[in-house]
Amino acid sequence: CSSSIPKTMKGVIIEKTGGTDVLLYKTDLPVPQPKEGEILVKNDYIGINYIDTYFRTGLYPTGGFPYTLGREAEGTVVSTGSGNTFNLSTGDRVVWLATGAYAEYTAAPATHAIKIPDVVPETHAAAALLQGLTALTLIREAHHVQKGDWVLVHAAAGGVGLWLCQLLRAVGAKTIGTASTAEKIELAKKNGADHMIDYSKDDVVSKVKELTDGKGVVAVFDGVGKTTFDASMECLARKGSMVSFGNASGAVPPVTIARLSAKNAKLLRPTLFNYIATRDEFETYANELFAFMTKDKMDVRIHEIYPLQEVARAHQDLEGRKSTGKLLLKP
Ligand code: NDP
Fold this sequence. Notes:
Radius of gyration: 20 Å
Number of domains: 2
CATH topology of the largest domain: Quinone Oxidoreductase, Chain A, domain 1
Shape: globular
Structural class: alpha/beta
Largest sheet: 7 strands, mixed
CATH architecture of the largest domain: Alpha-Beta Complex
Number of strands: 16
Number of helices: 8
Helix content: 25-40%
Strand content: 25-35%
CATH class of the largest domain: Alpha Beta
Bound molecules: NADPH dihydro-nicotinamide-adenine-dinucleotide phosphate
């Protein structure tokens, strides 16, 4: 009942770009009103993603201030706007993908919200959506990985990385992963990586060549960016796909297309949103992800659930390479 919705709420905004000191915790932000096609969600668990740090630092433009970071959360629908809300109604337990997640309440587009199956715990749903869908769409659409394919996954113990390892195992691929510590290497192996390389010490190109009989991998999934790009290109097999999907170490410098001719390589720079832009695409992939989670018993690794006030510490852990799996915020 809408009378129980308060006028103000807690949330985190930024008024300028910069370090974690620009993250401002507020207790008097206005609770948004759902517009046409939107649902108002009381968020229980908010997902942190590396992209949140890009908006905070200014690597990606926010388009104005004040700006509320965060692209996904799990929660309960407390009211609905006019128009089509895809049968979502008050009381439904949902996960959603949009903007403005670092807050108690978000008015989210119903097109990108979906009910959570009863068997999936709230924290798992919150941890899975953005990173799980990224991994799933990358291995289907950026490069459709087939059984027996050799692939390379950078930052394999990270949020997207652990989903890639698990989904690639489910597909029957042969996965080589990279990570920077012994603990991360163990975790990625447990989650399905067949071979792991400590890229803080060992040479990735020669290890990959050794493991693949000199042939290289049919696809590289590279969310690390600046520091790994060149080695990733070297690791590709002839006609392989270089899937550059992020920049945790910094943006990849411009590339000349002539470089692709050495192996007739494909170079992609996809975003999740362009794979799930329509309701139909979003719903199909989200349901498939839930099916993987319930039938294939995916391990949903949650690094820590941080109180919303401690968002700066969470960003420091993520950017300081201290985390594995998912970081969540609790408003
Ligand atoms: P992660 O949990 O993977 O964290 C990033 C990891 O990158 C770190 O844990 C670290 O692992 C590794 N890393 C390597 N070099 C650095 C560095 N210099 N600074 C910090 N980390 C470094 O984050 P996410 O799962 O949220 O995201 C992974 C990547 O995927 C990001 O680049 C993100 O932007 C991208 N992404 C892209 C999407 C898209 O639509 N294109 C959607 C979702 C994510 P280690 O210590 O093992 O090196």
